[in-house]
Amino acid sequence: FVPLRVRLRVSFSTMLPVSTIVAGVKHLFSVVTILFWVIYVIVRFCRQGWALVKKKEHTMPERLEKEFNHKFVQLTDVRLHYVEEGDKSKPLLLFVHGFPEFWYSWRYQIKHFAKTHHVVAIDQRGYGESDKPRGVDNYSTKKLAQDIKEVIERLGHEKAILIGHDFGGAASWVTALTYPDVVEKLIVLNCPHPGAFARTMWKVKKQILKSWHFLFFQVPWIPEITLGFDDHESLDYAYRSKFAGLKNQVNFTDEDMEAWKATYSKRSVMNAPVNYYRALAKNTADIKEMSKKIVKPPVLIIWGEEDPFLVVECASLSQERCKDGQVEYIAGSSHWVQQDQPEKVNEAIEKFIS
C-alpha cells in the first residue's frame, strides 16, 4: 500500500515534458502513415503484379519543340530550362509553374502575351529539362526565390511581372517578400500567402483534409513509387478526374497528357518535385518568418473557386497580407485555373498589368 500523496508526487515527478510527448505523437503518426502506404503498395501489387510498375513509352509531341523557343540559363548552382517568346526589349513576364506541372502549363498565356511583353516560362529546378540537384535542402522556398531573382537578372532585366501558380506561386510569394525590388507586380494563381496557408492549415478543418498529400509526401520513397503506378495514373487523376481535374476538359487534350507523361516518365523524375513538400515541412522557421511579412509590390490573386486542394478563404486571407492587393475569383474553375479558364485568366492579367 502506497499513500495517495506519495503516488501523486511520484506521478507528477515522472511525467514527460510536453515537447517529448509531442515528438512521440509525431513519430507514432509517421510510423502509422508509413505502414498504411506500405500495405497499400503491397495490396496494389498483389492485384496487378508487375503491370503496376511497367513503364510505357511516351514521346514529347514535336509541336512543343517546333512552336516554342527553348533555352537554358546558368544560375549559381543550377541550370534552368525555359521557353522564351516576344521582344526582349519589352517588360518581362516571368511564369513559374507548380506541381505536377512544367513550363507547358502556361501554353495558353505564352503566345498571348508575347505580343506585348518579353515572355519567359521556366522549368523550376527539379522539373522538366532543368537540373535536379539531390537532397531536400536544395528545394527550400528560399532557394526557389533566389532562382527567380537570378533568372530576372541573367535575362537582362531589373524587374519582372512575376506570375506563379501552385508551388510556383509559393516561390513567387517568397520572391516578392525577400526581393521586392525585382518584382514590379505579382500575380499568384491558386496559392496562398505563407501566413494565410499557415492559418487555414491549422484552423480550417476543410483545409486540413484537403492537405492530406502534404502529409503523404513526407513519407520516404513511397510517394515517388506510387505516383508512377499504372502509367502515371496520378496525372490522369490530377488533370482528368471529376474530383481534381479541369472542369473544361477540352482544354486538356490527349496530346497535352502525352506531353505530361513524356516529361514525368523519365527515371527518378518524381523525387525532386516531392522534395519541394519535404523542404516545406523541414523549414518551418522560414515559413514562420515569411508568414509575418506584408507583400510590398502590387498583387493580383487569381482564384479558381472549385479548387479541391485549397479552401477559397485562402484568397481573402492572402489579400490581407498585401499592401496593395486584389482578388479575382474565377467561377467554374479547378485548381488548374490558367488552363481551365485561360480567356478569363488572360483578361484579368491584362487588366492588372496595363
Automatic annotation (TrEMBL):
| Organism domain of life | Eukaryota
Give UniProt keywords alphabetically: Hydrolase, Membrane, Transmembrane, Transmembrane helix
Establish whether keyword Transmembrane is in the entry.
yes
An example molecular function term from Gene Ontology annotations: epoxide hydrolase activity
Q: Which residues form the AB hydrolase-1 domain?
A: 91-339
The UniProt transmembrane annotation reads 20-46
UniProt-listed InterPro entries: AB_hydrolase_1, AB_hydrolase_fold, Epox_hydrolase-like
What family does the entry list? Belongs to the AB hydrolase superfamily. Epoxide hydrolase family.
Q: What is the protein's given name? A: AB hydrolase-1 domain-containing protein
From which source organism is this entry? Pristionchus fissidentatus
